[in-house]
Write a structure and sequence with these properties.
- The chain is mainly alpha-helical.
- It has 7 helices and 2 strands.
- A two-stranded antiparallel sheet has the order 1-2.
- Strand 1 and strand 2 form a beta hairpin.
- The mean pLDDT is 89.
């Protein structure tokens, strides 16, 4: 069973690696250079998938947090925290690639546009979530984190709808009528999205595996300490 799991994981790693190479080829070779923005527009294929996967990661944290409070099973807490960590990484990519894309187009690195501002707030919320897990006591960490993960998610739909609710200079590429870019650009965006999704899942699987091992090590340490304590009591130590 363990061998089969390792084989599946290696196969998944190879598929992810292949898709990342395919995405790079599509971005830098297949996709045409956009006429008005030039070569810097290619950041779009990193920026947009990262944004959607950050939203997806925080949605997973939201669902897993609810399930943890309902079932009190540590596995949901591990999924919630692991997904939040990866979501912060993707959100950081969004905040880095956004200004690089904006500078030659808007002539500024940063502006307090509704989409940019709500994204920055979103990043702070989930960094605070991770900091809370560090400082909270072990007995209350999972419960506090779950509550924070549920309320923190409120900002995700606000961030997503910011370009639709308020006046903004942020481009609206994906609408109810489809994607407002050429067909080769659409293909490239889809390939990039699939590659980033596989990368997200691979990171999540590995992070959950690592947390499960840490949890088991903690259980074994507590068991050994209890046995040592009983031995001391037995011998009158």
């Amino acid at each position: 069973m363990l061998t089969n799991n390792r084989t599946l994981l290696k196969t998944f790693q190879l598929i992810t690696f292949f898709m990342m190479l395919l995405a790079l080829y599509a971005i830098f070779v297949y996709a045409p250079v956009e006429k008005s923005m030039g070569i810097v527009q290619k950041i779009f294929y990193l920026h947009v998938p990262s944004a959607f996967l950050a939203f997806f990661a925080f949605f997973m944290t939201f669902i897993a947090s609810i399930l943890y409070l309902y079932k009190r099973n540590h596995r949901w807490d591990i999924i919630a925290s692991s997904s939040a960590e990866i979501g912060v990484i993707f959100c950081t990519v969004v905040l880095i690639t956004g200004p690089i894309w904006a500078k030659p187009i808007w002539n500024v690195w940063w502006t307090w546009d509704p989409r940019l501002t709500t994204t920055l707030i979103l990043w702070f919320i989930y960094v605070a979530y991770l900091m809370l897990r560090r400082v909270a006591g072990e007995s209350q960490r999972s419960t506090f984190s779950a509550v924070f993960g549920i309320f923190g998610f409120i900002n995700v739909p606000i961030t997503f709808l910011a370009i639709r609710l308020w006046r903004t200079i942020h481009p609206l590429v994906i609408t109810g009528k489809g994607i407002n870019i050429s067909i080769p650009m659409q293909h490239t965006l889809i390939i990039s999205f699939v590659a980033f999704l596989l990368l997200f899942l691979l990171l999540l699987i590995n992070r959950i595996g690592l947390e499960n091992m840490r949890y088991k090590v903690g259980e074994m340490r507590d068991l050994i300490e209890d046995k040592i304590h009983l031995q001391h009591e037995k011998h009158g130590g």
